[in-house]
Amino acid sequence: LAIVVPLALGLIGFLLWLAFRDARAAALIFLGVPFAVVGGVLALAARSIPFSISAGVGFVALFGVAVLNGLVLVSFARDLEKEGRTHDDAIREATEVRLRPVLMTALVASLGFFPMALSTDPGAEVQRPLATVVIGGLLSATLLTLFVLPVLYAWIAKPAHPGAAALDASVPETATHPNEPETPATGSSSESTNTE
To answer: Which residues of 148-174 are buried (b: 16+ CB within 10 A; e: fewer)?
Structure first.
């Protein structure tokens, strides 16, 4: 585990950067890993299960599944920004639209591990830590992804020059071009010539 866990985490981070070519987006999605670790540790403590090799394998399996939720959310938000949505509107709409896929991903994986977590058959002492870690980690990762990740995305992943659009919008559209002739003034000078 001393070799497998860092290798798995490094590979996940590299693949995320390779997918987005953006360190901030990759780091935000990678937050699914600590989100999942919190739930896995609390689930082990709640069931009074000591950490074991089986639990460690459960954490390794959990990391890849937990990252999927953030990947679905952030990638959809970035697609909406490319379509013209503002930064805040994009992450808000992505959270609403992708709520069902995120929940289904977590529920399907969690329900599949419930028989292992509740088993009392011979050999269950090996299965229970793994299933407990995956179930607890997926629950915490899903909740924190839906409530915390959008806030962090809106705060950290803002465009580099947010005032550029506002500056362009402030330029008047009716500005005269330098080649256009100026219209003669019809003011007091024309009136004075008429009186003469």
So the answer is: ebbebbbeebeeeeeeeeeeeeeeeee
Round to whole Å and give the CA distance between 46 and 137.
Answer: 13
* pTM assigned to the model: 0.71
Residues 6+ apart with CB under 8 A from 32: 63, 66, 67, 68, 69, 70, 141, 145, 149
Q: List Cα–Cα distances, 184 to 40, 94, 178, 181, in angstroms.
A: 79, 55, 16, 9
CB within 8 Å of 55: residues ≥ 6 apart: 40, 44, 49, 129, 130, 132, 133
Q: Sign (positive/negative) of CA torsion 29, 35, 40, 43?
A: negative
Q: Is the dihedral of CA 67, 70, 75, 78 positive or negative?
A: negative
Query: For residue 192, how many C-alpha atoms fall within 13 Å in the half-sphere facing its CB?
Result: 4
What confidence tens digit (pLDDT) does each residue in 99-146 have? 888 888 888 888 888 888 888 888 788 889 999 999 999 999 888 888
Residue 48 identity: S
Q: How far is residue 13's CA from residue 23's CA, in Å, rounded to a whole number?
A: 9
The terminus-to-terminus CA distance of the chain in angstroms comes to: 102
CA dihedral (13, 14, 15, 18) positive or negative: positive
- Chain centroid to Cα 5, Å, comes to 23
Compute and round to an integer the Cα radius of gyration of the chain: 28
